[in-house]
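Fold it.
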Amino acid sequence: MKKAEPSYNDREIRAFLEEGCEFDGKLNFSGVVRLNGRFHGDIDSEDTLIIGETATIEGNIRVGFAIVGGKVIGDIMTKHCTEILATGIIEGSVTSPALISHEGAQLHGHMNVRREMPNLSLVASANGNQSVSL
């Protein structure tokens, strides 16, 4: 079986949120996106999300590949792989078929490793919060 490789190796970054910038909303994208600023909302893509050391993300993330170097407050679901760098902090659950965790990485939540990912969708509750539906 061929190992899946992150798409950032062969594609250029299509969007960038620099340190000092803030964004509230929902992000859907294709290609590679790097966030170094503050993002509040949900992120959905089949491709690669890079969360830089200075980034803080508050919301649920569903992507092909996630590379976490900053702070995520919410759940992460990846189709291929989640990588937590030494500076990465996740406060929430991670669901992924593969996890790479560097020394110093922090995961405050649950880790679910699944070879086959189920259909994943975000569900809004009565109080307006969103959660992950498997």
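Residues 7-133 form one domain.
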